[in-house]
Every structure is written in structure tokens, then in C-alpha cells.
Amino acid sequence: MDQSSILCPRFAKAMKMMGQRWTGLVIYQLLTGPQRFCSIESSLPISGRLLSERLKELEQEGIVKREVFPETPVRIEYSLTEKGMALEPLLRELEKWSQNWIEVEN
Amino acid sequence: MDQSSILCPRFAKAMKMMGQRWTGLVIYQLLTGPQRFCSIESSLPISGRLLSERLKELEQEGIVKREVFPETPVRIEYSLTEKGMALEPLLRELEKWSQNWIEVEN
DNA sequence: TTTAGTTACTTACTTTATGTAAGTTAGTAT
DNA sequence: ATACTAACTTACATAAAGTAAGTAACTAAA
Questions:
Q1: Domain ranges of chain A
Q2: Span of the secretion signal (chains A, B) (predicted)?
């Protein structure tokens, strides 16, 4: 478990983030536009507990922006920052790959 | 936890795979060419236990190919299949994104 | 002919992450 | 007061990951 070749720390960090359950799908969902908590929650098979956790992490990374609208009941919108938007090509590549190489069923 | 919009099952499956710890890094490492177990193990901070598990999963998905050379001691080489190679653009996108948007330290 | 060395794994066990469900907070509306 | 809503939290069970030691098959050295 000692590394002989050095992994680029930026790349390793990005991998650690994207290689976390739900992160990619949450960002993918936000590519369709700003959305509130319950909307993301119902578009993915993720629980509120984890969605809350992931959104917090993504906000800290500067990938997601959280905006509070003091309406009734309160509306909170999540959207992608420029850094988050920059992930679109990556997600489109995964989309393409999955269309070309994954068959469903199992 | 009910989905109102339907997630494409191919994309969801690809996400589940790539959004697993180490999967992306193992494939990234194999992009540099066929390699044996101990070589991958020492190039990433992954343990033998998990590397063995991931390689088995990737082999089952048809992303990685395992070849046994009955030398002394036995040599086993892992390489990417065509399906695995097709993930290169995706990994290059992540590489680019990380160079542009991630700063190291923390 | 014991002893040690090599690669490629397994097994056993601990810690961390995730899944599930119920509960909380703040602000109306009835 | 009671109920309703959105957005979370908390508590607890299960699954996945981390760590370290062990195994199998073979060779090479003492």
C-alpha cells in the first residue's frame, strides 16, 4: 500500500469526489437546471439523508450553490456553479459510453 | 424515494460502476498498458483485497481482461478490453477538469 | 531437506459509509 | 390547538471498505 508511482493529487481528489455514491447523479440531475431538495430526491433513488450529505459536500467543494427563498413554505434551490457546470462534458462522455457499451437486464 | 422522472438504466448502471471507489483509478492505471497485480497495487493506495475484488468485477463487466502466463513465478496480466479502452475520453475529461478546477492542499 | 522467497490472492476482523424510517424545525393555514 | 409543508436530522441496522495476517504453488538457497 505504498505508492511507487505518484498519482496526481488533483486527479486523485477529483476521482475521490466523483467516485462517491450519488455524487455524479446529483450533478447530472442539476444539469437540467436549478432544483429544490424534494425535486432532486424524487428524481433519483437516493434518500434524504444522503442527499443532504452530498449537497453539503458539493457546496463545500464549490460545485453546487444553495439559495434560500423565504417564501411560504420556504423554498431552497440548488444549482451548479461554473465549476459544477464544467463537469458537463464528463457526464456527457459517460452518457455516450453507457449508450454504446452497456446492455441492460441482469 | 420513488422516482418520478425515469433515469436511463444504462446510464444508471454506468454511474454505479464508475461511482465505486477505486474503479476509475484502476482503469486509469490500465490505460498506461497491460499490468500485473502487484504493479497496479503499488501504483495506487489500494489494498490487495479490494484490488482483487475490483478486478474481478471489471472482468465480469467485460472491461478488463485477465491473462495467465505460466512462468516462474506465475505472471498474470490485466489489460483493458475494447469496452474498457472506450472509457479513455471520460477519464481524460476528468483529468482536464481536475487540472482546471481543483486546487490541492487541505 | 528444511527454510526462505515470490506472486497472486483469501480470510478474519475492525471501521466507515450507506440504507431506512422516524423525528425535528420553522412557518403558515384551518 | 391541530394540521400541513419543505427541508432537514437523528437513531439504528446493514453493507462496503480498510488492515493485517494467512494460503497455494512454485523455485532457489543453505
A1: 20-98
A2: none
